[in-house]
Amino acid sequence: MFDPDHPALLRIREYCLSHPGTSERLSHQTPSFFVKEKHAFLSLWDDHHGDGRLAFCCAAPLGASAAMIRSNPEVFYLPPYVGHLGWLGVRLDRGLPWKEIEGLVAGAYEVVAAKHGARKRAPPANPKAGRSSAKRAPSTAKPRR
Question: Which residues pair with 137 in a beta bridge?
């Protein structure tokens, strides 16, 4: 269980909740952040299943997680359960600058918001909105035989 007053949690929470339409709740007993209260984009892990890591895992752009893991395997790793979905594990106990962490959080939010948040629109107030009340002109196409 993550200490609710842990400085890393407080800072990550500030970054995550600064984006529109985000919320926080426990998911699998760990602080997790969501777009539109439904679509996860980041989870914090403290010694997850005894792995000894203080880390977060987050959504990443297609192909980015593999490249980042290759570039710095001390900091980045393939997280269990969600790594095969393109998520990235980021160790918070390896001295990664907070500015870079903030950028990773923003990127995770953008990946999920673009897929689930930004494209959803409220239904029209009038269910017939957008429908034409005009009758269709008769077809000029010849019937099939």
Answer: none
